[in-house]
Amino acid sequence: MSDSPELTRRPEWTALEDHRRDALPQPDLRDLFAADPGRAERYVVHVGDLRIDYSKHLVTDETLALLQELAAATDVFGLRDAMFRGERINTTENRAVLHTALRAPRDAVVEVDGENVVPRVHAVLDKMTAFADRVRSGEWTGHTGKRIRNVVNIGIGGSDLGPAMAYEALRPFTDRSMTFRFVSNVDGCDLHEAVRDLDPAETLFIVASKTFTTIETITNATSARSWLLSGLGGDDAAVAKHFVALSTNAEKVAAFGIDTDNMFEFWDWVGGRYSYDSAIGLSLMIAIGPDRFREMLDGFRIVDEHFRNAPAEANAPLIMGLLGIWYGNFHDAQSHAVLPYSHYLSKFTAYLQQLDMESNGKSVDRQGRPVRWQTGPVVWGTPGTNGQHAYYQLIHQGTKLIPADLIGFARPVAELSDELKAQHDLLMANLFAQGQALAFGKTAEEVRAEGVPEEQVPHRTFKGNHPNTTILATELTPSVLGQLVALYEHKVFVQGAVWNIDSFDQWGVELGKVLAKRVEPALTEGADVPGLDPSTAALVAAYRNLREV
Ligand code: F6P
């Protein structure tokens, strides 16, 4: 198979290479701002409640225009429209990509193979609403008649990260009288810690799995059922009151022993990493209530509509996607940091890792030819203030270019005490200070002017020019969370479209799954597994020996 030729030979691509070499060989943000102070206002885009400032990027009007030309030449908006129309743009799996239909209004029409899927989406939302209300009100009781006070979501990947992230993000909106836990790891410690202090009679398990074949989830769900039954006297009938399923696979759900009346459905046109606004969000809906959940869907929709209708030069996901391409493909940046200045967004970057890296971690194009350009970046980060005392050193003074998104909110969370609310200005001062320090650094002259001894000057100089985006919103509400997630979903889409890769499959996770199944009998039974490489065979032998000691 020959290499995929198109992208890097396009005149729009080579124009960007020329521009990088000739116009911005050593871009300096101090100079760029001095030459064009208006960029502070001009390079800001508003979408919904989000104010996105991209003025601290290594770009000029010309760079942005050239990037827009690349987007036009690669027909990003054409693919976008095909996605919204329900075409099968996930070509390797021959599936439509319609997470946007999950937040479409009741009267919208989105067709897949001639069928309007919106009524089905709302039927499931209504079923979720009725169930969530019953659990929240205490009407849905466990097998012994006790009220449900604990909800344990069992899932992995997209069936865990989304609801777990959003539960954390929206904690102030959750029912604090209930306990919510999220179990994903096949390491038995995860389930053990999640249930060890819970009363089975008050515990509801939500088994979340699109395929209902994922070994981690089915293993944990099986163990959870044993835990439940042993705590409730072994009556199998208890399962019906303590287990519900979120899946596309009714057959497997029934085979597991969960009544399909207690199954909340979604469809193959919802990718796992794009699914927490589907039935996969049931645990979140129970936590925050159906009304808040719908507010979150409204937030997603605001950004969907923006992505669909805003002109290219004011289209936030397009701009963010193109800036990522500018660094990854024309500055050789390898990673992208997402740094929320909000404790409640502590799981946001982990969520984005799957969204971005499972979508765009690809090395062949849509036609199956090896690509000759970089695709998705390594996405990483933790809440900003903590990061400042850990890895920011490397961003500021290391040798790598790491574009970053700083995310913050104007208002602290309502339920904080006045004293804790007062800390919010300090939190945000850190965000603004970091954005400034990353972009503009500190020159040797400035360091000298402080009387620093000459031999120390190089150590205390910050070269700056670390590009960063500041995303500011009033408050972290359900709607704003939906807006943020949709913003990144569509940013990832834009990049995949330009790179001509299928952002919606994930074949790269299959090999490990297959090999784990093959290796397991060697561990459990000492079975001779044909085809084990010598290193792995030695590791398996060492493991078995150590286990016996
Ligand atoms: O990691 C691969 C993957 O297929 C993800 O895409 C998905 O989110 C996760 O496994 C869980 O899959 P399922 O929901 O089918 O259990």
Model description:
The protein is an alpha/beta fold and about 550 residues long. The chain has three domains: about 10-20 and about 30-95 and about 295-500, Rossmann fold (3-Layer(aba) Sandwich), CATH 3.40.50; about 100-290, Rossmann fold; about 510-549. It is built from 24 helices and 13 strands. Strand 5, helix 8 (about 160-170) and strand 6 (about 180-185) form a beta-alpha-beta unit. The longest helix has 23 residues, at about 420-440. The protein is globular. The protein starts with 5 loop residues before the first helix and ends with a helix. The relative contact order is 0.14. The structure holds 6-O-phosphono-beta-D-fructofuranose. 6-O-phosphono-beta-D-fructofuranose binds next to loops.
Corresponding CATH architecture of the largest domain? 3-Layer(aba) Sandwich
Overall pLDDT score? 96
Low-confidence stretches: none
How far apart are the termini?
A: 51 Å
The backbone outline, from C-alpha atoms, is globular
Indicate the radius of gyration in whole angstroms: 25 Å
Could you name the CATH topology of the largest domain? Rossmann fold
Pathway: Carbohydrate degradation; glycolysis; D-glyceraldehyde 3-phosphate and glycerone phosphate from D-glucose: step 2/4; Carbohydrate biosynthesis; gluconeogenesis
Keywords: Cytoplasm, Gluconeogenesis, Glycolysis, Isomerase
Pfam family, one: PGI
Main location: cytoplasm
List keywords for this structure.
cytoplasm; glucose-6-phosphate isomerase activity; 48% helix; alpha/beta; gluconeogenesis; five-stranded parallel sheet; six-stranded mixed sheet; 549 residues; binds 6-O-phosphono-beta-D-fructofuranose; 24 helices; monosaccharide binding; Rossmann fold
